[in-house]
Design goal:
globular; mainly alpha; two-stranded antiparallel sheet; 15 helices
Length: 296
């Protein structure tokens, strides 16, 4: 498992040896944070299902032309995809496992970076519009795509959710508010309804095709590629038909026979989980803080 473990740590944390300083710092702080052991958020974000969830979130976010313009025109995802991934993971885990001050700082940092992500884009209706990554509608779409992806992937490949799907959507609404979403949904039904309202704004096209092609064949270590291909196929299979059509994807089949993508992805995630261990360093650091505060 050692070679796989090193490559996975490099992919997700940016380094094979040791624990990043920001994760160790999650043991600091003077309160319990927004979420605790036994919460829906800890259950969902602590499972291996977060890996395919990240892919599903990126595919879904790319369907909003404004969100996609910000990524294409202002990020270096092609030159440094692992750096961008590590930055996203840092924000997610800081909000999930850090104290409230750390969550606020991490979110404020991302919002400051987003203030410079500006430009114009062509909407699904063909009209040109200005955008800023902090615009309320773009912040809401990113939050909805993230919540949908992590919930649906955990339902397919994770364990039980304390309080059920509604509890996860309601709890993770905190992250939406930290990122400037005015009224994030607080139930599974509310999440689905809000996603439907964005339908007329979503579009495919050459830019989407380019992102899909990159996500289908990212520059990963060769040892990780077979497992990633299984995960990508399973993520595509998990998406609603309308999103698949806009993304230019089809459900994986061998002739007329659907491929068993869900089981293949589950096996891949089991191997990854064995390599990385049951408890991640972010959760372990949070537990040390909670023990120090007498919360555990």
């Amino acid at each position: 498992m050692a070679p796989l473990q090193d490559r996975l740590r490099t992919t997700f944390a940016g380094q094979a040896d040791g624990i990043p300083a920001w994760e160790l710092a999650l043991a600091d702080g003077e309160d319990a944070g927004h979420f605790r052991p036994g919460s829906a958020v800890w259950a969902v974000h602590g499972s291996m299902a977060t890996i395919p969830a990240g892919v599903r979130a990126l595919l879904t976010q790319a369907l909003h032309p404004g969100a996609l313009a910000g990524v294409v025109e202002h990020s270096d995802y092609r030159r440094d995809p692992l750096g961008r991934l590590a930055g996203t993971i840092r924000w997610i885990f800081t909000v999930t496992y850090g104290d409230t001050a750390a969550a606020q700082r991490a979110s404020a940092h991302v919002r400051r970076l987003h203030e410079n992500v500006r430009g114009t884009y062509t909407g699904a209706d063909g009209l040109r519009r200005p955008y800023c990554a902090n615009d309320p509608d773009l912040a809401e779409w990113v939050h909805l795509a993230f919540t949908d992806a992590f919930l649906r992937c955990h339902q397919r490949w994770g364990g039980p959710i304390p309080g059920g799907p509604d509890a996860y959507v309601r709890e993770w609404a905190v992250a939406g508010r930290l990122m400037g979403v005015v009224d994030p949904p607080r139930s599974e039904a509310g999440l689905e309804e809000r996603i439907r309202t964005f339908g007329p704004q979503l579009a495919g096209g050459p830019r989407v095709d380019d992102v899909v092609g990159f996500l289908r064949r990212p520059p990963l270590d060769p040892l990780l590629l077979p497992g990633y291909r299984a995960l990508f196929a399973a993520v595509a299979d998990s998406l609603p038909e309308e999103r698949l059509a806009l993304l230019g994807l089809r459900r994986p089949r061998l002739g007329p026979v659907p491929l068993p993508t869900r089981g293949a992805a589950g096996l891949t995630l089991a191997v990854v989980g064995r390599a990385l261990g049951e408890t991640g360093p972010s959760e372990a650091a949070a537990r040390r803080r909670l023990a120090r505060l007498g919360v555990l």
